[in-house]
Design a protein that fits this description.
Largest sheet: 6 strands, parallel
CATH class: Alpha Beta
Strand content: 15-25%
Strand order of the largest sheet: 2-1-3-4-6-10
Oligomer: single chain
Helix content: 25-40%
Number of domains: 1
Structural class: alpha/beta
Number of strands: 12
Length: 287
């Protein structure tokens, strides 16, 4: 039986993964630990095969961010990650899995321009959140050894039932608006069920290295909104002709390119020896 410790109690990814593994009660034992105060430092990680580190702060602020807020991101996303990984190794854990993010590659390309990430693409964060994730990666990768495997998952936007963030904004728009602008774009996304299976395979195969999981299909934001509406029994009409207006708006707010810009992983870097995509895009929206 594999013993797994998830850092970050009540997190969306951690809770989803714990629930996902319940279908194999004889194969996995899962515990969670809260990282908010320092009491976790007193707990021994000895006996765990894998520490799945999902604890962190997600970027949800726009505009001018106070320096003390930026420092908190580095304290939690970088320093806490490195400290946890070092403790895991010192306590004899065999594997450390870190949830990084595609944000280490910077912002989406503007409307009308492609941005395709390959294995050779050099990370270039455009903000403190992306940099805090990248610095964490740089801090834990040197810990890799024959007895301690480090896995870094640079996930694109994760979505699924109960998720928060940008996907929920699209859901609200899909359920309220009768029309929505049609814009040509491509984005990589990752259904939470597909992520859970991917992480399970990382543990089963005792993997190490950097990974870029994503759904089989690229997503067009406009079509996604329409698909979400249809999955909830609603109709929404996609209207062309708004691209020029959105391009103008993109100079005043980063939200436009975040929604309608282009950002995707090359499909080749997301392939794995075992299949981890348990649901297609259509199937995942019905969840």
């Amino acid at each position: 039986m594999k013993k797994i410790l998830i850092t970050g109690a009540n997190s969306y990814i951690g809770t989803s993964f714990e629930n996902y593994l319940k279908q194999w009660p004889d194969k996995y034992q899962v515990d969670t630990i809260d990282m908010i105060d320092g009491s976790w430092r007193e707990k021994s990680f000895s006996g765990y095969d894998t520490v799945f580190h999902v604890s962190g702060i997600a970027h949800s602020d726009y505009g001018k961010i106070p320096e003390d807020k930026k420092a908190l991101y580095y304290k939690v996303n970088t320093e806490l990650t490195v400290e946890t990984a070092k403790k895991a190794k010192a306590d004899g854990v065999k594997q450390f899995i870190f949830m990084s993010s595609a944000i280490v590659y910077g912002d989406s390309a503007p409307i009308g321009k492609r941005k395709v990430i390959t294995e050779e693409t050099i990370p270039q964060p455009s903000n403190f959140y992306g940099d805090s994730k990248l610095q964490a990666e740089k801090g834990i990768l040197p810990l890799q050894s024959n007895d301690f495997n480090v896995v870094i998952i640079r996930s694109p936007m994760i979505y699924g039932k109960g998720c928060k963030g940008n996907y929920q904004t699209l859901v609200k728009l899909a359920l309220k608006l009768p029309i929505f602008p049609y814009v040509e774009n491509e984005r990589s996304m990752l259904y939470i069920g597909n992520l859970c299976e991917f992480v399970r395979l990382m543990i089963e195969n005792n993997e190490h290295g950097v990974f870029w999981p994503q759904n089989n299909e690229y997503v067009n934001t406009s079509k996604l909104v329409k698909m979400i509406a249809e999955a909830h029994g609603k109709e929404i009409r996609l209207v062309k002709g708004f691209t020029w207006l959105l391009k103008i708006m993109s100079h005043f707010t980063g939200l436009v390119n975040k929604a309608f810009g282009n950002f995707c992983y090359s499909k080749s870097i997301s392939e794995y020896v075992d299949s981890y995509r348990i649901a297609s895009l259509n199937e995942s929206l019905i969840d």
